Amino acid sequence: MPTLLEVKGLKAGYGPTHVLHGLDFRVDEGGVTALLGANGAGKTTTLRAICGMVRTEGAIDFLGQTLQGRATEDIVRRGIAHVPDGRGTFMELTVEENFRLGAYTRRDREIQADFDRLCGWFPRLKQRWRQQAGTLSGGEQQMLAIARALLLRPKLLLLDEPSFGLAPLIVQEIFGIMRRIRAEAGVGILLVEQNANLALELADLAYLLETGSIVMSGIAAEIRQDEAIRRSYLGY
Amino acid sequence: MDGLAHQIVAGIATGGIYASVALAIVMIYQATHHVNFAQGEMATLSTFIAWSMIQAGMPYWVAFFGTIVVSFAIGVVVERILIRPVANAPVLTMVGVFIGLLLIIGNATGWIFGYTTKVFPSPFASDRPLFGGLVSAHELGSTLVTLAVLTLVWAFFRFTRLGLAMRAAAYNPRSARLVGIRVGWMLALGWGMAAAIGAVAGMMVAPVVFLDPTMMLGILLYAFAGALMGGIDNPAGAVLGGFSVGVLENLAGAYVVGTELKLTVALAIIIGVLVVRPSGLFGRVVLSRV
Amino acid sequence: MSASKGLNPEAAIGPIAAPVATPAWQRGLYLLIGLCLAIAPLFLLESFHLFQLTMAVIMALAVLGLNIVCGYNGQISLGHGAFFAVGAYATAILMSHFDWSFWATLPVSAVVCGIIGYGIGFPALRLAGHYLALTTFSLAVAVPQILKHKSIEDWTGGVQGLFLVKPDPPAGLPLSPDQWMYVVTLIVAGVCFLLAWNLIRSRIGRALIATRDNPTAAEAMGMNIASLKTRAFAVSAMITGIAGSLSAVAIEFVAPDSFSIFVSITLFVGMVVGGVASILGSLFGGLFVLFVPNIAEAISKAAPGVIYGVILILFLFLLPGGFAGLIRSIGHRLRSRS
Amino acid sequence: MTTSRRILLAGSAALLAAPRLVRAEESPGVTATELRIGTTYALSGPASAYSLIPKCVTAMVKRLNEEGGIAGRKINFLVYDDAYSPPRTLEQTRRLVEQDKVAFLFNNLGTPTNSAIHRYVNQRKVPHLFLATGADKWAEPKQYPWTIGWQPSYRTEAQIYAKHILEQKPEAKIGLLYQNDDFGKDYVNGVKDVLGPRFDAMVKTASHEATDATVDSQLVSLQAAGCDALVCGIIPRFASQAIRRVFDLNWKPMMFMSNVSVSGSVVIEPAGKEKAIGLITSDYRKDQSDPSWADDPGMKEWRDFMARYIPDGELGDNNYTYAYGVGLTLFQVLRQCGNDFSRGNVMKQATSLQPMALPTLLPGIMVSTSPDNYRPIRHMQLQRWDGRGWVRFGKVIEGAEV
């Protein structure tokens, strides 16, 4: 598979302090890369760095072109959708309006078709079509956030802890949908997750972050098999 | 009881003034989530620009639309130069900039155009008063203009892609960026539109209250009260609120507290609404579950 | 920032660092220098300049009041002119109707303003940011109208206002009324500044700042935010009210027109230019608001207000810490060089 | 030159008195070559519409200096901004008196502002001449001998209206619309003076604030109360509104308008010339927009002055005619002073003006003062708007006699 996103020597931080100290990783087209690690390891910052939401050094190449120094809006318009921590839905707007905003940058005629397709994936959202997003449950909001991101028709989807704060059953449902995305939409995914087991099940490649550096990387399936790694790094 | 009916009709006529300014306030709130203290001064400046154009011999409607365009540009420029740099600063800084803007625009208007009261023409024939003289053709006409602007604004926010994007940018700029909205320009656009609506309000108000640099100070307060009453993010509510404040003010002034405390009535409405029902009487309550 | 992933440490610290304890001898030295600086004009300035300086100190005191609630506690008020007016009227009414001495009116004025401030603090609790600014702005616009209302006209003198007389210098002191007024102002303002200084450096002061910078954390630490905020409003109103009292006797006249919205705006500008959340800054603010209109008038006779607004915005953009911030950073630079 | 001749004639009696020769240096603000006079005005802010007055006086001073000044001295007229804020007035006045050491103050603007310095100037014994305010309180020679007004007070004006109503419609129900400040309240006081105990039964009052958008509600109330006479103590902006609305309401009261708000071009035309027919006011000035003064020598003198010294001035603004009148009154005082510009003598001359006509005042209206008469202009004449201009009727009325 050709490389979609290639990151080399990525450093980033807030103010004078660096949170990331030179990361190298990649996401393949249509593939899933998982970023694992404990709280504060720098996973969220990594996603923000790709989206141009924090100051960065190093190379971030997307489809052979650099994203370095570009504004978030421009990066998004190149086909990178980000479901941030806290989900980034518009609480005050209706589900429908959130959908419309998801497709904001698109001018093609298939938007309505995409609405229908995603409503098929997320029947619960269809039921709440005219409700304010703020009134949805956490799981529904996470679904809305993912739907909103997919409406961009991205080539790369950045997901920041989609399972955070959700009941196990809902988490299962959401991961089911992500498998579907992978299978049907051909979108590359960069997944940040604390639930290593679930993430490794879905991912092709996995990187393990510790305090801003990658301490281990490899094929997800292999890492999953390797009990030593699991014990020492992933703690399960 | 005849007097009561007259007070109500006269209140609606005055309320039309508040409604148009309230609409401008709500507009800028929708687009930027700021309460612009300099709104009144900006509208007054716009009206003076229109006045100068008419003085220079332009036909009324040319000046009218010309002013809207110029005011829009002024709004955009103000946002770019003064608001953008402090976009992430504390609210205190923001309020400070608004106050500075109020001082600068207000005093500059007085300096350039002088403080003598000026006559501003009305596009509506004024020879046949309506409702037994309580409402002039101008007041009726300007109310229609306000309602037309309201409809346009509502349709813009409700149905257009740009309108939705502007609301999104105001509610949640970070998320708006993540769907590809150019948030900075949305804010500038919002300021431009608010300035343009303020200009319309000013041009509708000036034939009634006469044009001078302090024309808006009192009106602004009533308009704030109207906007809050209707729910600060609800254009239709703001217009309704503006009319209600006009009527309330007259009734309270004529029958309850006396005319010396009309402004205090506005103050009471502002505090009352904010404390008791911050979303306004007609505003939606925003629920959020985290 | 997402609340779900813990607090941002930067936001918790805030722009102004917690006060550092200064050695006692140093504090004593500063106090002595300050005292000399304060008293010197008494002998150096002729009476007009002394009067101006008196007014500047009074404005500084009013700005200090605003700074407590606005700078230190983060509740924006554009309506402190209202407290200034209430203080001035309390003193004027007691002195002109009841022949009280000026000193006796001070506690009354402070208590009245404190109660009103406390009262306003309650709705303020439910209003944040722009809304509080808007509400207090409305209050300031409505003040002159309330002052001249006919139901209190017998006391306030209505639109004609009230006249009063400066306190006489005590017999035996070789001071002119202007000089004595300056001394009175110095004493009252000095006491208020010292009290404010101690308040800010106390546990309550730290709580005020914490409430401003991170209410969630402050609440988690067991602070009663509502009570802190309303009390901050009360103290702030008290101080500004006392400044109003002083101004009433210094001008020897109060009238509704003396308390237009521009008094409130002036205090706000003074706070920003002097230095938000700075005791010393309040002093600069007072000097600024008194003397800058004269400078602005010299630059542009027609539109000093424009100059005023430009200065305000320039400060917000270039020197957000005001004069006090400027001096602090110069001090830091000097110290780090040595 | 006509000016000076007119004034010379008017003040000849005073000039005959031999000038007392006092060494000029002993008086503050006076040197061998200069006489320093100060004033405070709102040069910025809402009230700065009046700043045309000191602008006009400054131009008159320039003309006077070009013609050789007074007693060999050039006049230096200092104008400071008080933004219509009383505390600022005190500060600026103290600056004028203590720092600039002016000989005296002239024509300070505003009632609250002058109130703030009233006692100060009297304690300091600084002449406080011909104030730009129509309040009634500046004529108290016993308590405040150093302060003197100029124009007829609003209170006097209101007395004249009330008296006229009693003559024409003794059973009238009077509506009184006034701005809720010192200016408007004087109209209430004036009407009260005349009606006395009958005030409550005859009068329905309605006040408005300067910040109000309209006075519609007040007019509706007054009409509903059955008023058939209406006295308005309001400023131009509201005057135009009121004239228009009263007409629209088809309410036909006997309507009186404060002479602050009767300019043909500023008030009447915006409201509609035909809508104002029947409106009554009383004035002491000539309305420059009235065509009947087109060939009047006094107004021509004023127009020539404007053309030469303030070519960009708006001729329709009656602040200029006011300023011209009050400025000439000042010059007369200075001429009467001879060579003695001490504060005592300035005040003495200011309070002993022989009756004198001024070019911008109506015929028959004289400026005169005496040590127990601190009201330089006491006369006014009623006039009625006929659709084209003001038509004077009745005789010149002396307010103090009402």
Quick overview of this protein structure:
The complex is a heterotetramer of chains A (236), B (290), C (338) and D (402). With 236 residues, chain A is an alpha/beta fold.
Question: Would you list the SSEs of chain B in sequence order as H and E?
Answer: HHHHHHHHHHH
How many domains would you count in the coordinates of chain A? 1
**Category from helices, strands and their pairing of chain A:** alpha/beta
Main sheet specs of chain B: none
Share of helical residues of chain A: 25-40%
CATH fold naming of chain A: Rossmann fold
What's the pLDDT, averaged over the residues of chain A? 87
Characteristic terms for this protein:
heterotetramer; A: 236 residues; Rossmann fold; 4-stranded antiparallel β-sheet; 10 strands; 38% helix; 29% strand; C: 338 residues; mainly alpha; ABC transporter involved in vitamin B12 uptake, BtuC; two-stranded antiparallel sheet; 15 helices; 75% helix; disordered N terminus
What does this structure look like?
The complex is a heterotetramer of chains A (236), B (290), C (338) and D (402). In chain A, the strands form two sheets. Chain A has a six-stranded mixed beta sheet with strand order 6-7-8-3-9-10, with helices on both faces. A four-stranded antiparallel beta sheet of chain A has the order 2-1-4-5, covered by helices on one side. Chain A has helices spanning 43-50, 72-77, 95-102, 111-121, 123-127, 138-150, 168-185, 196-202, 220-225, 227-234; strands at residues 3-14, 17-28, 32-37, 55-62, 65-66, 80-83, 156-160, 188-193, 205-210, 213-219. The radius of gyration of chain A is 17 Å and the shape is globular. By secondary structure, chain A is an alpha/beta fold. Chain B has a domain at 24-216. Chain B is 74% helix and 0% strand. Chain B is built from eleven helices and no strands. Chain B has helices spanning 2-32, 39-55, 60-83, 91-113, 137-159, 161-171, 173-178, 183-209, 215-230, 235-256, 262-276. In chain B, helix 5 (137-159) crosses helix 6 (161-171). Chain C is mainly alpha-helical and 338 residues long. Chain C has a two-stranded antiparallel sheet. Mean pLDDT of chain C is 85; it is low at 1-19. Chain C is built from 15 helices and two strands. Chain C starts with 8 loop residues before the first helix and ends with a helix. The relative contact order of chain C is 0.18. Chain C is globular. Chain C has one domain (3-39, 48-260): Orthogonal Bundle (ABC transporter involved in vitamin B12 uptake, BtuC), CATH 1.10.3470. Chain D has two domains: 19-151 and 298-371, 3-Layer(aba) Sandwich (Rossmann fold); 154-283 and 381-401, Response regulator (Rossmann fold, 3-Layer(aba) Sandwich), CATH 3.40.50.2300. Chain D contains 14 helices and 14 strands. In chain D, strands 2-1-3-4 form a four-stranded parallel beta sheet, with helices on both faces. Chain D has a four-stranded parallel beta sheet with strand order 6-5-7-8, with helices on both faces. In chain D, strands 9, 12, 13 and 14 form a four-stranded antiparallel beta sheet that branches. In chain D, helix 3 packs across helix 13 (319-336) and helix 6 (154-168) packs across helix 7. Chain D is globular, with a radius of gyration of 21 Å. Mean pLDDT of chain D is 87; it is low at 1-25. Chains in contact: A-B, A-C, B-C, B-D, C-D. The interface between B and C is large, with 44 and 46 residues.
